Structures are given as C-alpha cells and as structure tokens.
Amino acid sequence: MLGKQMLAADYGASGGRVMLGSFDGEKISLGEMHRFANEPVILNGKDRSTMYWDFLRLFHELKTGITRAGIMQGRSGADISSIGVDTWGVDYGLLGRDGMLLSSPVHYRDSRTEGMLKKAFSRMDRERLYEITGSQFMEINTAFQLMAEQEYREELLEQAESMLLMPDLFSYFLSGEMGSEYTIASTTQMLDAVKKDWSGEVLEGLGLPSRILKPVLMPGTRLGSLRDEICRELGIGPMDVIAVAGHDTQSAMAAVPAETDDFLFLSCGTWSLFGTELDVPQIDGRSFACNMTNEGGCGGKTSFLKNIIGLWLIQESRRQWMREGCEYSFGHLESMARDAAPFVSFIDPDAPEFVPSGNIPRRIREFCRRTGQKVPERVGEVVRCIDESLALKYRMVLDEICACTGRSYQAVHLVGGGAQSALLCQMTANACGIPVIAGPVEATVYGNLAMQLVAAGEVKDLKEVRSIIRNSENMKVYEPQDAELWQEAYGQYRAFVR
C-alpha cells in the first residue's frame, strides 16, 4: 500500500475487525489486519443473570490488530498516522476515580431494561421527551439502561466518576482522553437533537446523573496520541487517536456513495437502519407517531431513520441450528431460502420476542402459529420468511419516511454486510419498488477512515468523501421485479404488522 496510512477499528454487534486504509488522494484501499468474533458472556449472579460484553477480550483484539499493522508498517517503512474506533450504539462503560472500569459493560440485549420505558413515561411526558431528543423509543437506549442501573446496581452508579459510550471507551483506553462523540451520544435518548448537547431537562426529568457525562465532541476531532505505554507494548510508532463517527451507522452513512442530496440509505447488518439524510432534525407529530429517530451525523447532518432488527434473525437462527448439530454457511442458507416457496408466512422482525438471544426459529414458528399462518418447518422456509419479512418491513418504513418528509426517492443505497446477500437485495428492490444500489460492504470502515482524513485536513466535506468512496468501490444495482406480486404480499404483510 502507498499513500497516507490509517487504522480503522470497527466493532459490530456480532464481530469486529481492524483494517488498514491507504489514501492516494483519489481513493481508499483497504487491507484486513485482524478479524474476530464479538460474543456476549452471560454470568449468573445471586438473584439474576446478566449479559455482558467481553470488553477486555475486545480491547485485546484491538491491540492484536494494531500489532499486526505495526509489523506491516515495519516492512513497508510507511508510518500509520491515525486510528479511529466505531461501534454499535447505546451501550457504555462506567469508570471509577482511578479511570478504570468498575464492571464489564452490560449488553443491550440484557433483560434489565424490561419495563423501563413505562417507568420513564411516568417520570417525564412521552411527547416532551421525543420533542427534545427526536429519538425512537427503544428500551435498549442508554437512558433506560441507566434507569435500570439505578434499580439493579445503584451502588455501582454512585461509585462512577465517568460514563463513556463504547467507541469513546475504546478511544479512552487508547489515548487517555475522555469525550462523548456526537453521533454515538445521539443514540442515548439524552441528547438535545437541536442543541447537539446533553439535555438537562431530560436528565433531570428521568432522574439521571449529569456528573458522569463528558463534553460532546464532533466527529473528526483529534482526541490525542496513542499512549506511550501501548506504543512500547505493541512495538508500534506514535499515531493520532481520532474521534470518528463513533456510531457505526453514521460511519456507514458517511460512506453512502450517493450523488444527490435526496437519497435513502439502508445500513444492513445485525441491525437494519433505514432512513434518509436531512439538514436539520425533523421532530413533529408525524415523526412522533411513526417513532422515527433523528440521529446525529457527520458534517452537521441529521440521519432521519428507523432501527429495525436485521440480520440478527439470520445470525441467531444459524447459531441455533449449529447448537442442533447443523453447520450451515450463510451461502447455503440463502440457497435454501431461494428454493423455498414465496409469500407463505411473515413475521414482524421487531416483535419483542425476537430481541433476546435463543431459539429464533422456534419463536418464528410460534409467531406464525399465533397469527394463523402456515408454520415454516424447513430451514429454507424459515430463512425465506425472515428475508421476505425484512424486505416488506423496509417497504413499510419507506412509506413512513415519504409521509414524514413529503419527498419521493429514486433508489435505496444498501450498505454493510447485507449487500453480500443477492437474495435480500433483490427482495428489497422488489418490495420497495425502486432500485437497490448495493455496496460498499465495508461502508463503516470507509466512513471511519474518511473522517480521519477530514480530521487531517486532507478531505474537505461529505460531498468529497462520497466521491472518494465511489472511486474506491464498484456497486451493484438490483432493479425491482414482480411488482404486482410484491404489492399483494405487502397487503398481506400489513395484516400481521401494524
């Protein structure tokens, strides 16, 4: 690789990777340094079990990736100028006065937040909470996790000197500097969407401590340098630690290769995030009724979107079949789904029973049985049910976005791991009735690296970023097919999903 060298650490809800990026002035080239699984750990306590992120292991994996990059750096003689970290949203770590973790971060799929939405609305008016934050109500959001913290681990919260969201936590242990990057802070339901800062009214209304929160930083901010101790430990040269768009969705959003201002994006991984980009937040009665979220983006933009359970349904189903002794590749699952009969049964991907880990195929069958549909028994039937239901849910959210914004859209840019599924891409084009432009698969990594270039002053703005991404990747276009069949299926789907 030639040109400016940077590292991107990208943590998804099911896996992570450290990638080396090289910028030659026109395009970014990628090289994989390290890839690893991200598996939660469940510990059984005295009264209840808790699902944790294995943060110590995840930080070790980050160091492994940096070490491998350092070895390549030594061979090539090229210096690595910077590193940035992006992760999934809403989760956090609590630190004591000594700057060390008080506990492993709790996983958003832990059951402790059950009932917290209801409790929150007893403390603060629901519409007022949405009016300030513009955030989709989900029990996993940070605000409701902190309420659960008060209920289950109050003594830990009292000991806490600082709370850092996951990308900020990794960046702190790399650099020694604390901050709250804007895009990840906007996933908490504690940020004022207009002022782009923590909302004192929300914190007071929900009874949450403001003392543990750190100042909000815009993406593209230099936090500091890699700690000297880490450089010596890993045999790596000094590099800047950059607060990139810490929420992986917003790193992916920055890398959407759109050429126009009005576009739809679908960041498709463990979660699906479907939306559009706006200049200012859209917070009104219609967006409230549709439970849309206004997430902070790069370049002062707002991502107007909805969170949808995504490939988690496939991933967790595959894990269940592996527990039963059947190891299917994702390609084999897609092949079986392609051969299964279409439009036999549907689910609501966002039904609460699909959030926890466990036997997803059994829960799908129970959903279909309860709603009077044919029950999918074979593996291919289950996977087809998931894929069709996701595509039709995307269509449903598309209708909501169009109703909220008053705009029409000519295509969907589908980025992330879902771009590798030709079946899901085609189904999404069919369901939405507009072309799907698939790619890049590594959108989060590209966006992470691009914001490092912005921080270094080598790239001016989002428009230039997206031009670089178009130069760096080839996208595939899926044209809609079978319009009448999919419109009929959508009508059937709406009977089961409100």
From TrEMBL:
Organism: Blautia celeris
Pfam families, per the entry: FGGY_C, FGGY_N
Transferase recorded as keyword: yes
Name of this chain's protein: Rhamnulokinase
Similarity field: Belongs to the FGGY kinase family.
Domain Carbohydrate kinase FGGY N-terminal, first and last residues per copy: 6-253
Residue intervals of the Carbohydrate kinase FGGY C-terminal domain: 265-456
Keyword annotations of the record: ATP-binding, Kinase, Nucleotide-binding, Rhamnose metabolism, Transferase
